[in-house]
Amino acid sequence: MTTSKARAAHRPSRKQWVIEAATELFATQPPDEVTVADIAARAEMTSAAVYYHFSSKDQVLAEGMRVFADALREQLRTLADAHEPGSDIGPAVTTLLAWLGEHRSAATVFFVSSAGMSQEAEALRLESRTELLAELVRLIHKARASVTDAEAAVIGLGLLALLETAAISQVRGDDVYRSLGHRSFVREVDRLAERIADPAVAG
After folding, report:
1. In this predicted structure, what is the pLDDT of residue 41?
2. What is the pLDDT of residues 133-184, one digit of tens each?
3. Alpha carbon distance 169, 53 (integer Å)
4. Are 145 and 85 in contact (CB under 8 A)?
5. pTM for this entry
6. What is the pLDDT of residues 78-119, one digit of tens each?
7. Which residues contact 172 (CB under 8 A, 6 or more apart)?
8. Average pLDDT of span 112-133
9. What's the rounded Cα separation, in Å, for the pair 157 and 196?
10. For the chain, percent helix, then strand, then coil, each to nearest 5?
11. Please, what is the Cα angle at 195 between 189 and 201, to 5 degrees?
12. How far apart are CA 178 and CA 185, in angstroms?
């Protein structure tokens, strides 16, 4: 009851409640099985209120993915801005992985649940990958000033693939993640990031 009163006092944020409620549902159920009524119930509002902000559940899904992608890109941009020139790149990758773990539901939807759901979802993922790659290339140039643009692009693709694979393994809690345990998993991601960034790294 307290929640309802608080929400009623902040009506402009209801669109965000819808996104958050839908994200929680999409992360635990196949998106095509989730209904607008389910989202409305989770957000503690009526279906009509959901339709006031979104034309369909697919639009809710797309907007949630867009919000997450923007936040992910901003997080990587902040890490790239703060990166000490010449320093190891692994910690930046594992810091981003930790951020993804803190946003598990949204990460699950973005990397796992929404796969193949719609052309819009795939277009959003492609756009996000392009933007993340640009930030990774900038990070690589700060970490290794001697690399060419072409080398940085290839390294960036490798790091992006690592990040996406690690994120999926982490949110799913798959066999690799469980067998290693969280700390060892993160340590191995760090090591692999270093090997991708600099093949001369031993180990």
Report:
1. 96
2. 999 999 999 999 899 999 999 999 999 999 999 999 999 999 999 999 999 9
3. 33
4. yes
5. 0.86
6. 999 999 999 999 999 999 999 999 999 999 999 998 887 788
7. 108, 112
8. 90
9. 10
10. 80, 0, 20
11. 130
12. 9
Distance, in Å, from the CA atom of 80 to the CA atom of 122, rounded to the nearest integer, reads 26
42 neighbors 24 (Cβ within 8 angstroms): yes
Helices (H), 54-174: 57-82, 90-102, 104-108, 119-143, 149-172
How far apart CA 42 and CA 21 sit, in angstroms, is 5
Side chain identity at 60, as an amino acid letter?
V
Residue with tokens 């009506």: 11
Residue listed under structure tokens 């393994």: 169
Cβ 93 vs Cβ 170: under 8 Å: no
Residue in the structure block whose two tokens are 């031993």 = 202
pLDDT for 26 beyond 50: yes
Answer for the pair 152, 140: CB distance below 8 angstroms, yes or no: yes
The residue assigned the tokens 């993640």 is 177
